[in-house]
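Re: that chain you flagged

S.,

Sorry for the slow reply, it's been a week of failed gels. I finally had a moment to sit down with the sequence you sent. For the record, here it is as I used it:
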Amino acid sequence: MKMPIIFSGHGSPMIALENNEITQTMKAVGDSIDKPKAILAISAHWFTDQTYIQSAPTPKQIYDMYGFPKELYEVKYPVSGYAPLTESVQSLLESSVSINDTWGIDHGTWTVLVHMFPHADIPVVQLSVNRHLDQQQSYELGQKLAPLRNQGYLIFGSGNVVHNLGRVEWDNPDGTEMTHRFNDAITQSIVSHDHASVIHYDTHPDAAYAVPTPDHFLPLLYCLGAARNDKVKVFNNVCNLGSMAMTGYVFG
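Prediction finished late last night. Pasting the structure tokens below so you have them in one place:
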């Protein structure tokens, strides 16, 4: 059976502790799919100098955020790794991927999965986001990962369509006009299978504001490449903090 692909916005790490419409929707997305053998997680927060895959049988949980309440650092998501998934990724990506177990399961992954799959009973293997790949190359790497879906694996990307920490408006529960324009344009392109417009997001007039750095956007291109032209379900189409979009997509 062919597994879907999920891309989710993650926003503030505090989402791990929240119970609101956004986190309830994340849970509903997890409940809506058949349980995968394992999850290949592509998090914006493992942004590296080349493409790495994890092989640790018990990857450590990374608290890669600072200045938050003590209870956030007490959230536990104790997943195992999964050697067959690591080996499948190595087979698909060949010499372009290397083993690296210096990282772990970071907050881009566990703050969302704690809602989607709260029992932490699905193995998770993280794949890094390669800072040296451009948009087209990131999309093409995703295309190479597509066969994992027929092997029972869920590809899960975590980032944000709009992510500009420098322009955050802490007292704004909505998004700015620029955030909404960019988020709407990307979402419409994804739904209409206009992948070229998503790949070349930097041609949009609001791109410099919405994507000042590529780390949170590139996981979406990995997912889009693996999704091909599958049907798309949009979830959590919400903008907040002025310069954040929490929008997520289920492909397939």
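What I noticed first: Residues 177-191 form the longest helix (15 residues).

Talk soon,
D.
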